[in-house]
Design brief:
By secondary structure, the chain is an alpha/beta fold. Helix 6 (306-311) links the parallel strand 18 and strand 19. It is built from 19 helices and 47 strands.
Length: 858
């Protein structure tokens, strides 16, 4: 017997001393009361006795990931049947947990595993068990897996050991000896401009084999070489050097079809069997090339006057004259983005999606400069970057200059019934786009709508929007998907027949079509020439990418029709694209007349000194100052429109110059004596204050876990962080979602955050420190991580089993043969129960004693 509080037994001698010194308690004359007192003290001391139990909760974890699916489908039910047959008839229990990217209790009636199967999160499954185990029972875990977890197991072994829960495992498959794979590309996180560096590609495959490896940078072949795997693995080393800053994507691929294996004599070579797993034959990594303060100038001017002015202030200016070359990594290492009269449709959607996070969370600067292809005229109204600008581009009816007859031609083919991530079908999103377009038309405009599959179905004829707008929007939202593909010529010809007789000044068609399913173009060139001769135009919104099968056709239709062509593989962007195009076509936002300008005095909020402003602009983009922002220069016409405006967004800065600084309508601006000072001062303000001193950031990717380390001078930063802790923010570029991540304090001056990421994720991040930021990324989690089969992951699984006292289980019949568990059970309640009859006896004896004393007294 043991006691939880043995020190309470000191009360026994104290009780005896009290009985001797206080005779009125009559304890010495009543052994019963002494016994009661002793039992009370013993119960309070927490007595317990040792117990032995063979009852066991066995937790069966079944790896349901893609790489293990074949084995599980064939054998999982048989494994469970064997375990249930061998289960002792006592109080032992079997619990089955299925896991991959999620962990769920197995329900035989529910059918397929509800997760994606693209990951093997063994640590997550073990934490799922820890949350359910009963500490009063013996527990044991048996994992059925290929052994290759896609996340580190971390310190989960310590938690299991503390609760005495062994982890057994059974390997469900053996990696094929003919499987070639690239496990990893090792690159530096950052290198300096022009610095040479090495790429290390870890390759695994059959021993004594030779396999060609190709290295691509940003999709272009960089180099090729043949690698020999004498012991079944090798590290191929490639050198590179980049002379321009930014983020660059490297991809390594093995060509298993051309692999050879040396014979025993080492001279002859023979072909190998087909590679059984192709999903692990490539790997991707990103590298950042850094320089000094950097500006990304996106322009269509062949000789942009801003280039030399910006270079005079010591900035590294990257000039981009082909906006289609921009991608998710283009803003890495950039302090300021300048868009000089570039329309929205020429900017890839993947790039536009990165701009808000760049400004608001990474502390970047953003400047848009005016022209006939900028602001609302450039289709930026309701775009991804609309809200970043310090001016709004909504257009008021009194500023209309030309009525429009618009026809919308919608793809209603079978592919439009597919459901997107937000739960809406492509057809519903296209309908919403049509509704948005109609809502942006004015009272003098007219609209018609055709839904097209193998025929053109007129939803409503050309109708004035004025009093009919609400009804037209309701009908636009009622289109349902049909079948087959979209017959492009049918839709265009019927739409033009409807517009041809219109007397309105501007006639335009918006064609929405699947870039992989646009059929039967017919005599579209003849039709477009006829439309062009009648000053009618056509724009195209393609669902898909420029590389899709029918994308060239859609691009040619837009080019011959004198309009724009948009592509997006994100169905949720469709309504915004309709809005952008309608605003561009239906609303004239560029005032092409010389207009007087006037300073407001607000320039001193971003500069130390004011200067003599230009007195007129040759033209400008009509917009309105956004609430909360400031205007330094305004027009002196009836609109009093902001010509120079600025503001803050998150930790970043934003500005708008609504008049051209180059090309047409810029003569007055370029002849202004303060032109250079204005551009340089505004650019310096947009560059911000840079990275704070005494603090550094180091992100690391291990499998699917991104670990971010923040190092700082504790004496300098502790007080600051106590009032305003640093905030780690991540953006998933695939679905454009952001999340705040909590820190763990590792040691003085060191914070750490570990974030599991889904397979195929491309993320950027930033640590916000006060009003400044430390940006990083993009970081790419390989989409084939489930098939990497890293030997380190298998070793980690085996080490976890040894640490917890488990073993590899080849014989399932022995899974229940665990040694009995030695435990302790409290027996204080038995002492408490014994007190009840003793107390009653003492009370009865006391009453008898009183009655006897009464008889004697009589």
């Amino acid at each position: 017997m043991t006691f939880a509080y043995p020190f309470l037994f000191i009360l026994l001698p104290i009780l005896l001393l009290a009985a001797w010194r206080m005779p009125r308690m009559q304890l010495l004359r009543s052994p019963l009361r002494l016994l009661i007192s002793a039992l009370l003290i013993t119960a309070a001391a927490g007595p317990s006795c040792k117990t032995t139990s063979s009852d066991l909760d066995l937790w069966m974890l079944v790896d349901q990931s893609h790489s293990n699916k074949t084995q599980v489908d064939q054998n999982a039910n048989e494994w469970e049947r064997i375990l249930r047959l061998e289960k002792p008839a006592s109080g032992s229990r079997l619990h089955r947990i299925d896991y991959a990217d999620i962990a769920v209790s197995h329900q035989s009636e529910s059918g397929d595993f509800p997760g994606s199967g693209a990951e093997t999160r063994t640590a997550l499954a073990l934490r799922h068990v820890l949350a359910q185990v009963s500490p009063k029972r013996q527990n044991r875990v048996l994992v059925f897996t290929d052994g290759y977890s896609t996340e580190p197991l971390g310190d989960i072994g310590d938690a299991l050991s503390e609760l005495s829960i062994p982890v057994d495992y059974r390997l469900t498959r053996v990696a094929s000896e003919w499987d070639f794979r690239i496990n990893k590309i090792e690159t530096p996180q950052k290198v300096s401009l022009g610095e040479s560096f090495l790429l290390k590609v870890k390759v695994h495959g059959p021993a004594q084999s030779e396999v060609p490896i190709s290295i691509y940078r940003d999709g272009e072949l960089l180099t090729e070489k043949t690698v020999t795997l004498p012991e079944g693995e090798a590290v191929a080393i490639f050198a590179d050097r980049i002379v321009k800053p930014g983020a660059f994507s490297y991809r390594a691929e093995v060509n298993a079809k051309e692999a050879k294996q040396r014979a025993i004599d080492g001279k002859s070579r023979h072909s190998l069997p087909a590679d059984p797993v192709l999903a692990n034959n490539r790997h991707t990594a990103w590298l950042e090339v850094t320089s000094g303060p950097r500006v990304l100038l996106v322009t269509r001017y062949t000789d942009d006057p801003l280039l030399q002015i910006l270079r005079r202030i010591g900035t590294d200016v990257e000039l981009v004259s082909n906006p289609l070359s921009l991608n998710e990594g283009s803003l890495t290492g950039v302090q300021t983005l300048i868009m000089n009269n570039v329309p929205a449709h020429e900017l890839p959607a993947t790039f536009l999606r990165t701009v808000p996070f760049f400004v608001e969370n990474q502390g970047g600067g953003f400047l848009m400069i005016g022209g006939k292809r900028s602001f609302g005229a450039g289709g930026f109204h309701e775009s991804q970057i609309d809200s970043l600008l310090p001016v709004t581009m909504e257009l008021k009816s009194e500023h209309r200059k030309l009525a429009v007859a618009m026809a919308i031609v919608l793809d209603r083919s079978g592919s439009m019934s597919a459901i997107g991530p937000d739960g809406r079908s492509k057809m519903e999103l296209a309908n919403e786009g049509s509704a948005r377009a109609i809502s942006l038309l004015g009272s003098m405009d007219a609209a018609t709508l055709f839904a097209v599959d193998s025929k053109a179905h007129r939803v409503f004829p050309l109708t004035n929007v004025g009093v009919n707008g609400a009804g037209l929007i309701e009908r636009a939202r009622s289109v349902e998907a049909g079948g087959g593909g979209i017959f492009v010529y049918e839709g265009l010809s019927k739409a033009w027949a409807e517009l041809e007789s219109s007397e309105l000044g501007k006639r335009h068609i918006i064609l929405f079509s699947d870039a992989n399913d646009s059929e039967q173009p017919g005599a579209y060139k003849t039709l477009l020439r006829k439309m062009q001769s009648a000053d009618a135009t056509i724009s195209v919104i393609g669902l898909g990418e420029r590389s899709d099968a029918d994308a060239k056709l859609l691009e040619e239709i837009a080019k011959l029709g004198g309009g724009r062509c948009f592509f997006s593989n994100q169905a949720s962007e469709i309504p915004n694209l309709f809005a952008q195009e309608t605003t561009t076509i239906a609303r004239s936002t560029f005032v092409d007349e010389a207009t007087q300008a006037q300073s407001t005095g607000r320039w001193l909020e971003l500069a130390r000194n004011d200067f003599s402003w230009l007195t007129q602009v040759d033209g400008y983009n009509l917009s309105y100052l956004r609430e909360g922002d400031e205007a330094a220069l305004i027009s002196q016409d009836e609109y009093a429109a902001p010509l120079v405006a600025f503001g803050r967004r998150g930790v970043g800065r934003t500005a708008a110059v609504s008049f051209p600084l180059g090309g047409a309508f810029s003569e007055s601006a370029r002849s202004w004596s303060g032109y250079g000072d204005f551009v340089q001062t505004l650019s310096r303000w947009l560059l911000g204050e840079g990275v704070p001193s005494g603090i550094a950031l180091r992100p690391e990717l291990d499998g699917q876990t991104l670990t971010t380390h923040l190092f700082f001078n504790s004496e300098e930063w502790n007080q600051t962080f106590a009032l305003d802790p640093p905030v780690l923010v991540l953006e998933d570029l695939n679905n454009q979602s952001t999340q705040d991540v909590a820190w763990e304090r590792e040691s003085p001056g060191h914070y750490r955050a570990a974030i599991p990421l889904p397979s195929g994720t491309l993320v950027r991040g930033a640590v916000r420190v006060g009003d400044r930021a430390l940006p990083f990324g993009p970081i790419h989690v390989a989409s084939n991580v489930e098939y990497q089969n890293s030997p380190e992951a298998l070793s980690e699984m085996q080490a976890l089993s040894r640490l917890t006292g488990g073993e590899e289980r080849s014989n399932l019949a022995r899974a229940w043969k665990a040694p009995p568990v030695q435990g302790e059970r409290t027996i204080a309640h038995w002492f408490a129960l014994a007190l009840v009859p003793l107390l009653l006896l003492d009370a009865w004896l006391s009453r008898i004693s009183w009655q006897f004393e009464d008889l004697l007294s009589k």
